[in-house]
Structure to design on (83 residues):
């Protein structure tokens, strides 16, 4: 799961034009100014970047970078397993 954290930090920084130094693994996304609509935007960015599909209902699980990386790992595993 942790293997995707640097990529997720970069995607969050790029998508929301944040200083990467401010994007810590455990910083709540809300503290970074990423609200519910922002989490949807983040899901879309991840889907495009990784060519995966993430259920929109999972957006509430996106609480911090670590949680985003975990959800991403699950989606990538499903993609590989689902062929």
């Amino acid at each position: 799961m942790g293997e995707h954290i640097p990529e997720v930090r970069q995607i969050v920084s790029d998508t929301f034009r944040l200083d990467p130094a401010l994007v810590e693994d455990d910083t709540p996304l809300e503290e970074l100014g990423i609200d519910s609509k922002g989490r949807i935007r983040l899901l879309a960015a991840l889907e495009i970047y990784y060519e995966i599909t993430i259920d929109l209902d999972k957006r509430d699980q996106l609480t911090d970078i670590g949680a985003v990386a975990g959800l991403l790992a699950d989606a990538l595993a499903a993609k590989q397993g689902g062929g």
Observations:
- The mean pLDDT is 91.
- Residues 52 and 76 are 7 Å apart (CA to CA).
- The chain has three helices and no strands.
